[in-house]
Amino acid sequence: MFKFKIGDQVLITAGKDKGKKSKIEKILPHENKLVIAGVNVYKRHRRATRNQAAGTYEVTRPISVANIAIICPKCTNPTRIGFILNEKSPAFRPGKSIKNGKSLPAGSLRKASKQGKIRICKKCKGHI
Ligand SMILES: [Zn+2]
């Protein structure tokens, strides 16, 4: 399960926009990259086509998740994300970890990974 969601507030920790804070606009899970508003913007000079005039266009390029820290909306610190199982999830068993949940009937775990897990801040343990 991917840690990031569209609209999350993030801090850039490396690269040319290091230190900037912005919001996630788009997620590319297969490449482990994110498009963040106003971050990693490059100027491209484009030739004129039928649909657009020639000139300089600003293109926001995706940035690797390795260079991004999520900002917790509860404690406003850059943090890491953990997952806990939702109590209402069909895979939830008190005292059982997610790994041990493998013994559950087929389908229930897949369901759990879709809707049963809750993101938590590793610093303040608050739900994000
Ligand atoms: Zn927090």
Model description:
- This protein has 128 residues and is mostly beta strands.
- It folds into two domains: 1-71, SH3 type barrels, CATH 2.30.30.30; 80-128, no CATH class.
- Helix content is 7%, strand content 36%.
- It contains one helix and ten strands.
- The protein has one helix at 108-116, and strands at residues 9-12, 21-28, 33-36, 41-46, 55-60, 63-64, 68-71, 78-79, 81-85, 117-121.
- The strands form three sheets. The protein has a six-stranded antiparallel β-sheet with strand order 6-3-2-1-7-8, with no helix packed on it.
- A hairpin with an 8-residue loop joins β4 and β5 (55-60).
- The longest helix has 9 residues, at 108-116.
- The relative contact order is 0.18.
- Residues 100-113 have low confidence and may be disordered.
- It binds zinc ion.
- Zinc ion binds at residues 72, 74-75, 77, 79, 121, 123-124, 126.
- Belongs to the universal ribosomal protein uL24 family.
- Residues 3-30 form the KOW domain.
